[in-house]
Design brief:
The protein is an alpha+beta fold. The chain has 4 helices and 7 strands; from the N terminus they run E-H-H-E-E-E-H-E-H-E-E. Strand 2 and strand 3 form a beta hairpin. Keywords: Acyltransferase, Transferase.
Length: 155
């Protein structure tokens, strides 16, 4: 099976409502905040150097991704330099490879920017995203951040 084609688009006034309407399955809400909550958190945390995009398949938004982008070392309370803060695929579009395709693009962008690793974290529990990240080659760092297990992909 070939990976679906996705592209990352900036969030603007024209697409903000459609992107903010994206929702995960109710059982996944404990693992990922909504797009609106994520955008609010990005605005409230400029020191984390938030970089975010809508994930599109054709002309339809199917997800959202947010990273801390190239954070200078030693910034208190911020994991980085590249930290995958959010990856959300709408419940109607899950299981079709969009998350995999989007994460592959993010990894390529981080690598092109000179990054050598990507960090993320997850809340442990039934239905957690760890199996998804493990397939990419992420490994636990041994660190726990605000109750979440921190994992790393080195490239």
């Amino acid at each position: 099976m070939t990976a679906p084609q996705v592209h990352l688009r900036e969030i603007t006034d024209r697409n903000r409502a459609a992107v903010c309407a994206l929702r995960v399955h109710p059982g996944q809400r404990q693992f990922v905040d909504s797009v609106t909550e994520s955008l609010d958190e990005a605005a409230a945390t400029p020191e984390a150097e938030p970089w975010y995009r809508a994930i599109y398949a054709g002309d339809e938004p199917v997800g959202f991704v947010m990273l801390s982008w190239n954070v200078p070392p030693g910034r208190p309370g911020v994991l980085g330099p590249y930290y995958l803060w959010r990856l959300l695929i709408d419940r109607e579009h899950q299981g079709r490879g969009f998350g995999r395709a989007a994460l592959t693009q993010v990894i390529d962008l981080v690598r092109a920017d000179g990054g050598t690793e990507l960090l993320t974290s997850y809340q442990p529990g039934y239905g957690e995203p760890w199996p998804f990240y493990r397939k990419f080659g992420f490994v636990p760092t041994g660190q726990v951040d605000d109750g979440e297990i921190v994992i790393r992909l080195t490239f």
